[in-house]
């Protein structure tokens, strides 16, 4: 199998200035490999560093140490831990998607425009982007009367489904999921599961962090558990 991403001895330390200079460890000595088309899940207690790992890969956080080797279609082998910001922005537009359980959105953009924008950034034409965006909003059971409204009025579950629609419509090479089912009911979880299987079948590689272990075990190929700052591969049941 061919590796899409290799994380080697990743460290992230946060420097806090409120009470002098205090260092807090986000994650340390994290190493794992994800092959093309594979989905790995990361579990662990709240505060164990799961989100920190995901955000270092997406480069929301700048790692303190270690390597994140990503095999890019556009650039070849890239170390995401040190790549220039311009390279990271291009990869986010063209290859790497991210789903957060929290929705950050421009205040004057409708739900339909929000999903369309994701496709337009990748060079899709307007008519096709609109068609695919509508199909994805319907797939995630967002009512049609909401499509031309502003998401600031949405419920937590509706915002998360919108965030999933925006990320999953792109068919990214690598998709990072940060608690993707956190505020969803069972029917919505089944919709997410269906889309994940479609993306995997199309070749998308995924890394996700979960508290919902039953859902995780139904979609991932391998699981890593983060405990006491260390990450070890768990045996799949």
What would your notes on this structure say?
The protein has 237 residues and is α/β, with parallel strands linked by helices. It has a single domain (3-17, 27-234), classed as Rossmann fold. It is 33% helix and 30% strand. The strands form two sheets. Strands 6-7-8-3-9-10 form a six-stranded mixed beta sheet, sandwiched between helices. The model has no long low-confidence stretch (mean pLDDT 89). This is Alpha-D-ribose 1-methylphosphonate 5-triphosphate synthase subunit PhnL. Residues 5-237 form the ABC transporter domain. It holds the Pfam family ABC_tran.
Descriptors:
Rossmann fold, 10 strands, alpha/beta, about 240 residues, six-stranded mixed sheet
- Tell me which CATH architecture applies here: 3-Layer(aba) Sandwich
The H-level CATH homologous superfamily, spelled out, is: P-loop containing nucleotide triphosphate hydrolases
Give the helix/strand class: alpha/beta
Number of strands: 10
- Treating each run of at least 4 consecutive H or I residues as one helix, how many helices? 7
* Shape field: globular
Largest sheet: 6 strands, mixed
CA(first)-CA(last) distance: 22 Å
Name of the CATH first level:
Alpha Beta
Q: Give the neighbour order of strands across the main sheet.
A: 6-7-8-3-9-10
Poorly predicted runs of 5 or more residues: none
Run of helices and strands: EEEHEEHEHHHEHEHEE
Instruction: Report strand %.
Output: 25-35%
User: Total domains, how many?
Assistant: 1
Per CATH, what is the topology? Rossmann fold
């Amino acid at each position: 199998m061919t590796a899409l991403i290799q994380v080697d001895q990743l460290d992230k330390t946060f420097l806090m200035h409120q009470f002098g200079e205090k260092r807090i460890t986000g994650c340390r000595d994290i190493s794992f490999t994800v092959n093309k088309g594979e989905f790995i899940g990361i579990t662990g207690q709240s505060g164990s560093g799961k989100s920190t790992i995901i955000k270092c890969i997406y480069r929301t956080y700048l790692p303190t140490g270690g390597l994140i080797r990503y095999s890019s279609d556009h650039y070849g082998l890239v170390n995401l831990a040190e790549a220039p910001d311009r390279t990271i922005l291009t990869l986010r537009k063209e290859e790497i998607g991210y789903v957060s359980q929290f929705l950050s959105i421009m205040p004057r953009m409708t739900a339909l425009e929000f999903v369309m924008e994701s496709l337009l950034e990748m060079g899709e034409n307007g008519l096709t982007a609109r068609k695919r965006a509508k199909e994805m909003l319907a797939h995630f059971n967002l009512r049609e009367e909401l499509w031309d409204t502003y998401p600031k009025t949405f419920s937590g579950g509706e915002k998360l489904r919108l965030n999933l629609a925006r990320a999953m419509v792109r068919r990214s090479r690598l998709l990072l999921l940060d608690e993707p089912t956190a505020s969803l009911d069972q029917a919505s979880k089944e919709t997410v599961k269906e889309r994940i299987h479609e993306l995997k079948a199309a070749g998308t590689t995924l890394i996700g962090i979960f508290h919902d272990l039953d859902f995780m075990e139904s979609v991932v190929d391998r699981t890593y558990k983060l405990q006491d700052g260390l990450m070890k591969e768990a045996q799949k049941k």
